[in-house]
């Protein structure tokens, strides 16, 4: 099975190799020869202090992952394995307790407009219209008012919401809200788009159309995308590579290259699609069992 | 379903149904979070008060079909007409003593006389000035203080014991103190109104800041906003509806407590008018004063509702 073959090269074992390679590229900083990965996650761990317990709680541990410039990477793993935690770390919202995260070879030390996040629950500001929401990041970037408005309109068009600019979030459907949230993240032109189960709350039809549009936008803008999902199909459909995480403490169990001869037609009907699905399902099955056991014992 | 004015987490909108008791406490409940240990001594006041507020909320906020609006309109005025009728008839038939409860027509005539000879305007103005001064002062001082308490943990920790103590001290109990310190003149009354109005505004502001959706804060932080911009662009606008709930409560208090102060010691004002009329046995004048106060409270509430609506068009239904 070709998927297996490729996955083998990029498994956890191979990840170590990538670390050394990446690490050697760092000291050179602007070293043109070995261009550093867009996102480099180096042996990253995050522990939380839990109230009423002196034992620290390890959410993720020893994560190694490189994301290439312009790549669309999807991340799957059992619930509670630390996917959101990892995304927060890349976003710079929290600091790792171990290891480091590099963007273009430079260590992350806080949030920044070079990365945009899209949350499952949209996180739109309810007192702002769709347009004003899209302008939010531009205000943070101190873009002049007139240009802000123009850019916001452009991105509103891009996500297919032309004419809905004056609506407040509560006047929009879930799918439309998520489109606004995506437009808001694109508007300040980040290199990296971090998406945490963005379509999980949407109905199947809306989800599919948003998946297609996201791919279209990604191809058009060339962003680097890290997309968390709990849907195996979604991960295969969207990702050029699918990273599978272990149960908590989360590590990268395997990274699988997804390649189709052509993306025309119904991808999900492609026999390769079924092979990928089965492969990832098998990888996840044991982890999910462990995760469920954990939830039972920890409560 | 809730009407368009339903606050995200303010007082209940459901038009004074039984369930409201719990929600009404919201005006005060946040205090529990603001200052540890709830136990509100003022629990009853907001309940009764907010019930009235809810009633007018529904009147002003229902946006159903014209027909059903007409029906509710007729329904509501019908109740008022009935009340007026009962007030007119019972004293005339002798079912109640017309000396203590004169028929409505006599009260209205007395009101008209008070209006013509300018006394009503004089008392009305005296009350309104005191009420607005105390209320305005409360807005100007309590909102910034509430924002500071809600936003800065150390400020909250420092102030909370004192706040908790005063919060549980009835404003009415403090009136003699205010009179001792500020004399019988305008100052003590304005301070008294200010004191009563400051609490709902302060507590709601604190809760408004504290209960901002964490995901919004996270989202704003991810776009690189520092503490100052975060406060200005996320915390403040998110807190506006809750702050307004406090302002509306305070608006009602400002009139309620002022009347009390004017009954205790004053030379003018609607409270004085009522008290003085009773002492000199001008019973119709007394009722005229009472009606005027009700109308004033009603108008004030409608005004504040209008302002609130302008500021929170974005609120979800
Ligand atoms: N701030 C925090 N404090 C304590 N524990 C946390 C915190 N954030 C997340 N966790 C825990 O870390 C684990 C991973 O969480 P998360 O990253 O949200 O998982 P996922 O997104 O994969 O479902 C969970 O068990 C969660 O309870
Ligand atoms: Mg998650």
From TrEMBL, chain A:
Q: Where is the ABC transporter domain?
A: 39-272
Among CDD domains, the record links this protein to: ABC_NrtD_SsuB_transporters
Residue numbers spanned by region Disordered: 1-36
Keyword ATP-binding attached: yes
Per its UniProt record, what SUPFAM superfamilies does this chain match?
P-loop containing nucleoside triphosphate hydrolases
UniProt keyword annotation of Transcription regulation present? no
**Keywords carried by this UniProt record:** ATP-binding, Nucleotide-binding, Transport
What superkingdom does the record give? Bacteria
GO MF annotations in UniProt? ATP binding; ATP hydrolysis activity
This chain belongs to the protein called: NitT/TauT family transport system ATP-binding protein
UniProtKB/TrEMBL annotation, chain B:
InterPro entries xrefs? MetI-like (IPR000515), MetI-like_sf (IPR035906)
Show the segment(s) annotated as Disordered.
Answer: 1-49
**What topology does the record note for this protein and the membrane?**
Multi-pass membrane protein
Residue ranges annotated for the ABC transmembrane type-1 domain, each copy included:
124-304
Looking up PROSITE patterns in the UniProt record yields: ABC_TM1
Regions crossing the membrane? 132-153, 165-184, 253-274, 286-307
**Which terms are listed as keywords in the entry?**
Cell membrane, Membrane, Transmembrane, Transmembrane helix, Transport
A GO BP entry: transmembrane transport
Compositional bias per record (Gly residues), positions renumbered to this chain:
12-24
User: Sorted alphabetically, which Pfam families does this protein's record hold?
Assistant: BPD_transp_1
A GO CC annotation recorded here is:
plasma membrane
Compartments annotated for it: namely: Cell membrane
The entry assigns this protein to a family as follows: Belongs to the binding-protein-dependent transport system permease family.
Q: Which PANTHER family match?
A: ABC TRANSPORTER PERMEASE PROTEIN, ALKANE SULFONATE ABC TRANSPORTER-RELATED, MEMBRANE SUBUNIT
**Protein name per UniProt:** NitT/TauT family transport system permease protein
